[in-house]
Amino acid sequence: xxxxxxxxxxxxxxxxxxxxxxxxxxxxxxxxxxxxxxxxxxxxxxxxxxxxxxxxxxxxxxxxxxxxxxxxxxxxxxxxxxxxxxxxxxxxxxxxxxxxxxxxxxxxxxxxxxxxxxxxxxxxxxxxxxxxxxxxxxxxxxxxxxxxxxxxxxxxxxxxxxxxxxxxxxxxxxxxxxxxxxxxxxxxxxxxxxxxxxxx
Amino acid sequence: xxxxxxxxxxxxxxxxxxxxxxxxxxxxxxxxxxxxxxxxxxxxxxxxxxxxxxxxxxxxxxxxxxxxxxxxxxxxxxxxxxxxxxxxxxxxxxxxxxxxxxxxxxxxxxxxxxxxxxxxxxxxxxxxxxxxxxxxxxxxxxxxxxxxxxxxxxxxxxxxxxxxxxxxxxxxxxxxxxxxxxxxxxxxxxxxxxxxxxxxxxxxxxxxxxxxxxxxxxxxxxxxxxxxxxxxxxxxxxxxxxxxxxxxxxxxxxxxxxxxxxxxxxxxxxxxxxxxxxxxxxxxxxxxxxxxxxxxxxxxxxxxxxxxxxxxxxxxxxxxxxxxxxxxxxxxxxxxxxxxxxxxxxxxxxxxxxxxxxxxxxxxxxxxxxxxxxxxxxxxxxxxxxxxxxxxxxxxxxxxxxxxxxxxxxxxxxxxxxxxxxxxxxxxxxxxxxxxxxxxx
Lengths: 200, 441
Description:
The complex is a heterodimer.
Chain A: H1 3-24, H2 28-48, H3 52-77, H4 89-111, H5 115-125, H6 144-152, H7 171-199
Helix pairs in contact in A: 1-2, 2-3
Chain B: H1 8-16, H2 21-58, H3 75-85, H4 96-113, H5 131-139, H6 141-152, H7 156-187, H8 192-198, H9 212-228, H10 240-243, H11 253-277, H12 287-298, H13 302-332, H14 338-371, H15 381-388
Helix pairs in contact in B: 1-2, 2-11, 2-13, 3-11, 4-5, 4-6, 4-11, 6-7, 7-9, 7-14, 9-11, 9-14, 11-13, 12-13
């Protein structure tokens, strides 16, 4: 058993236990705490897979952003000391069914993929030469520059980077998502404002 | 992840001792962790003593004088021994699980930030390509520990402290990230080691002097970083004059001190980021000394090691000066109100940092249109970096087997962060370091 396997086991077990504890616990802030354990271990799995950027995004957005806001909202709005969520049996059944459907989807997706073929394709595609040729960029998580290039429309994984050909890249989806977020922000600001005016 | 540990030399040493490669990496990881933990625990040790000394001097008294002989330099140790002896209390109204876990979250978050922080050229535990991003992401977890502490204490003072901290951090992370991005735009890299190396060769190459916008951005970053460490004048989460102790009102003993270990260590971490992003990192700013140090690091044996240690010295001096200024501010500036804290951030710092960001983007374009170059100094960043240390661009220790320095930077393939394409360069200049890859379908 090598080191990566040890850490993989550690992170997967803590991610699963964290997720279970989120479902089982009834206190909202405790749920947030277990969610940190779960999401932090998932970020650890990303780091283990040499996807540093994705792991850092996971930590920054979900743990540092969303969960902080969640606890902040609980602190601002709760009337009692510790907020409890009590689920009715109907909700448990509904949530269980949705969970089972999702499980089937994941199993179907997992069994439907030719993992060996994909693995070899990824290995070939990630052979991006470092400055002095001794350092395997893709295998060590140094993928940030290719990702940035892809966002700008240069696709080093498509093999035409050296000739400077511009692909569509990920710029358009990225911009669409950012405009979408802007719309959400404006909408949230509008809703928050309208309420205050009525009170006054 | 194991391969990203910059442990080549150590692994070679272990290999010569006849240890298998898995255990080499494990051993190297343990050594790195031990070293980093040493740094992480020495930071509070030194800075708490410094804080007490500086506070004493500012208030016209002596500060600690007796413990450890002169200057009271063992005061922090005495404090630590005292705190270990205290009873570990958990109030009955508290949510005991969260109450006990919160100090560890703070401590772990600020310790994890040191993993990607380079202390000298190539002397970094994990030479991640997105180093700065990981560091900011990990340090944003520290807030969560403080909010949890405030919430789970079951005390009104703590709850107020936690709420203030949440409000403050949610707003201050925006200008912090924007100000950190401004030198990143100039550098074209998130790898802290590369960014440090780009600023070699003279004080004019520091990103502080890269353009007027980065110059202002440094000061904005420093203010925001002070706020993100919840230091005075932004220490609303503690605010001992109004909230008893804020988020740590109910804590005692070691759990209480973990918060302060985290706080002082993250003060060093944000000042270290400032030192690398704006102040040249391990470069002294004097070309002759920098070249000498770079040559020492590029050589082999003990002189390379000494070069690394001197680099740490330069880096640490800059970071400690930053921490000293934070301490100085704490004892001279009065605490501002929570509404003023939020106003300063949302009405002033966010627009200022957005303006600086836009300015730093347009600056090279304007220079390029007017003077056919992208920096006001003579050489573009990419050439500067290639000339600094050969074969060390990816953030790992210099390989002594590699050929000597390439001072004219003629080797185009060595420019990971080359400038925008100029007339002289071919269209695909920026990506020449990447080999075309054929993807089989």
